[in-house]
Design goal:
Order of helices and strands of chain A: EHEHEHEHEHEEEEHHHEE
Helix content of chain B: 40-55%
Largest sheet of chain A: 5 strands, parallel
Low-confidence stretches of chain B: 420-426
Oligomer: heterodimer
Number of helices of chain A: 8
Shape of chain A: elongated
Largest interface: A-B, 28 and 29 residues
Radius of gyration of chain B: 53 Å
Shape of chain B: rod-shaped
Number of strands of chain A: 11
Strand content of chain A: 15-25%
Number of helices of chain B: 9
Strand order of the largest sheet of chain B: 2-1-5-4-3
Low-confidence stretches of chain A: none
Distance between the termini of chain A: 26 Å
Order of helices and strands of chain B: HHEEEEEHHHHEHEEHEEHEE
Helix content of chain A: 40-55%
Strand content of chain B: 15-25%
Structural class of chain A: alpha/beta
């Protein structure tokens, strides 16, 4: 899953970026409102974490412009403004959630997960696809009753495929959702990671859970 | 001292009414007493004159007989007459007692208050007259020598006293009744009259610091209360403004502290979320320390602001060499991030002023810090000044200002930052210019920001009054 963090206070930005990346998210970070709007309009993020007091362009204006540009990305406002009027104005400007500073980092992660699920019309944090059981809150995967240890990248890829289970997902979509703006990885890396996942998940002598659709991408399907 | 306005009014008015009633009663009583006494005296004098008109003793006796009251013991009227040679006649009712022998100097009767032989108060009249001695018939034809005699008539004043007593009683009773009635009426009138006070008190008691938008309605209020209501409303307006500012400031402070706090918490939480290398922990600790130092600087600034506002900063005014202070402040300025160099020009010459040295250093350091931070690369900072009419004007200017001219009004507000000023370093809390303003004002001066949009020059102009300035 890919997030955009727009926060101008450097120490907070640094810690949040580290924490979110460690939680397995691909993350683009900026401290400037105008750059934030440009990134948000030009990329497909799962969630945008937005501070309100920003140089260049303030958070609410950014949000209003993003919405009028037709972008439906989930936005979580992260701000020190806790007055009722501020919260109402924030939500009314098109935000999906509102978190007041200071906050517990675990709560931020939980809210981001919730927004990600909403983005894929999924309410249940426990995803079941065939023999797969993915607990999106604990980031744990079971296959045929066996726990499968995955790296953060592998897990993220699997979660994304699972969220879009039954749909063909193109390499570029995967790349967009899993890799950061500054990553110099090529789309070849997607194939490499799909290979890793297959090796860990598939039982010998059975068809792969992740099926390659020639010329289109990959699909994770329940019907095997 | 009576605290209640109503009681005070009541007591005052009732005291006045009592005095007036007493004066009125005393007047009525006195005039009645005089009239009754005069009437009494007149009847006594006319009786005395009638008696004094008698020529002989016999005639006198006969005349006295026609006045039965002088013979009776009950009527308490007495007479006694003295001839030059002694007591000649007295009323039987006198017993062995005597009336005082009052001798009038002329023919005019003399009146006097006396104590009667019965011990009761009475009124006496004395007339002198001539009385022919011997028998009138025997004296016919011959002129008998006349003797000067004095007749004193006395009468008990019981009737007068009785009537005055009734009058006094009537006056007392009337006075008391009037007073009682007046008290009752006053009570009602005062209560009604002071009702608007209760109304206003009730209205005021309903106002809390949570809702200062309430205004006292002056409609239907008596003319005397309208200015009170007006003044109270003005006070409420000022209070509301002050509370609003205070709340705004408090919420600003909370807001400004929340962001670094969130940064610190996030740093700690993320660091603790898994086991890390020692280097990572050291880095996290250093990050937290940086944040804590920023918060400390902000809290110190806020404290300084509060102390300057409350006047609890002891300022030691002394003559200071402004140019030297400015040079020193510039030298001690922390080096700006990156290799951006800003040219500094000190045009203060030998300008001196009387001010608190620490305070002026703090002011100039803050101004220079801003001037460098919000400058353009390769920009300039210069400080200028002049002495004029016992005032010293000092200006600190810098290039590279991108603020609109109308921002000059806002720059001194706590936590105000120009849009571009909110740098990602987070070191500028937006309190520097507030501190400058309060410091200069605490020294009796004034400060103003001037923005020249065309040249991008930002100037802070300080005026320090009442300083012993030596010319440049």
């Amino acid at each position: 899953m890919k997030l955009l963090l727009i926060e101008d206070y450097l120490p907070l930005q640094k810690s949040l970026a580290r924490g979110l990346r460690e939680a397995g998210y691909a993350l683009d970070v900026t401290g400037d409102g105008k750059e934030g709007l440009w990134l948000a309009c030009g990329n497909e993020y799962d969630v945008i974490i937005l501070d309100l007091m920003l140089p260049g362009l303030d958070g609410l204006s950014l949000l209003t412009r993003l919405r009028s540009a037709g972008k439906k990305t989930h936005v979580l406002i992260l701000t020190a403004k806790d007055a009722l009027a501020d919260r109402v104005r924030g939500l009314d400007s098109g935000a999906d959630d509102y978190l007041v500073k200071p906050f517990a980092f675990d709560e931020l992660l939980a809210r981001v997960r919730s927004l990600v699920r909403r983005g894929y019309q999924e309410k249940n944090p426990l995803l079941k696809i065939g023999p797969l059981r993915i607990d999106t809150s604990a980031h744990s995967v079971h296959c045929r009753g066996q726990s499968v240890p995955l790296t953060a990248r592998e897990y993220t890829l699997l979660e994304y495929l699972a969220m879009r289970a039954g749909q063909i997902v193109s390499r570029s979509e995967i790349w967009e959702h899993l890799y950061e703006f500054n990553d110099d990885a090529t789309s070849n890396v997607v194939d490499v990671y799909v290979g890793y996942l297959r090796r860990k998940l598939d039982a010998p002598d059975t068809a792969s859970l992740i099926r390659t659709v020639r010329g289109a991408g990959y699909i994770l399907e329940a019907t095997q | 001292m009576i605290r209640s306005l109503r009681s005070r009014l009541l007591v005052g008015v009732l005291a006045a009414v009592t005095c007036l009633l007493a004066l009125f009663g005393a007047g009525v009583y006195e005039s009645f007493r005089r009239a009754l006494t005069a009437e009494f005296d007149q009847s006594l004098v006319s009786t005395a004159r009638t008696l004094a008109a008698q020529r002989t003793k016999t005639q006198l006796e006969m005349a006295l007989e026609s006045l039965p009251q002088f013979g009776s013991e009950e009527d308490l009227a007495y007479f006694q007459a003295w001839a030059a040679n002694g007591d000649i006649m007295r009323s039987s009712s006198l017993g062995i007692g005597d009336l005082p022998r009052i001798v009038p100097s002329g023919d005019t009767p003399v009146l006097q208050d006396i104590t009667l032989p019965s011990g009761l108060p009475g009124r006496a009249v004395a007339v002198s007259f001539s009385l022919q001695t011997g028998n009138a018939r025997a004296a016919a034809g011959k002129k008998k020598p006349a003797v000067r005699a004095v007749l004193v008539l006395a009468q008990d004043t019981a009737e007068v006293r009785e009537r005055l007593g009734v009058l006094a009683m009537l006056l007392w009773a009337g006075g008391a009744a009037t007073l009682a009635a007046a008290s009752a009426v006053m009570l009602v009138v005062v209560r009604r009259g002071l009702a608007p006070l209760n109304t206003i008190a009730h209205e005021i008691s309903a106002i809390t610091s949570d809702d200062l938008t309430y205004r006292i309605s002056a409609a239907g209020m008596p003319a005397e209360m309208t200015p009170v209501a007006q003044k109270l409303n003005d006070l409420l307006a000022r209070l509301e403004e002050a509370f609003k500012r205070e709340r705004g400031f408090t919420s600003d402070v909370a807001h400004e502290l929340r962001t670094p706090l969130a940064g610190m918490l996030a740093t700690i939480e993320v660091t603790l979320s898994r086991s890390r290398t020692g280097k990572d922990y050291v880095q996290a600790m250093q990050d937290c320390m940086t944040i804590a130092a920023q918060m400390q600087a902000m809290v110190e600034s806020l404290l300084m602001l509060a102390r300057l506002s409350s006047g609890s900063v002891a300022l030691q005014r002394q003559q200071i060499d402004l140019a030297a202070v400015a040079d020193n402040c510039w030298k001690l300025l922390p080096a700006p991030a990156g290799a951006v160099t800003t040219a500094f020009e000190n045009r203060l010459g030998d300008l001196r002023c009387t001010a608190d040295a620490d305070c002026m250093s703090m002011v100039l350091t803050n101004l220079f810090d801003n001037a460098v931070t919000y400058n353009r690369p390769g920009g300039r900072v210069w400080v200028d000044g002049l002495a004029e009419d016992g005032r010293v004007h000092v200006t600190v200017s810098n290039t590279g200002c991108t603020l609109p001219a109308e921002a000059a009004e806002q720059v001194f507000a706590p936590f105000w930052r120009g849009d571009q000023s909110r740098t990602m370093t987070g070191t500028h809390a937006g309190l520097g210019l507030s501190l400058v303003q309060r410091s200069i004002e605490a020294q009796g001066g004034s400060v103003k920001a001037i923005i020249n949009e065309d040249d991008g020059i930002f100037t802070i102009r300080m005026t320090l009054p009442g300083v012993e300035a030596v010319s440049r």
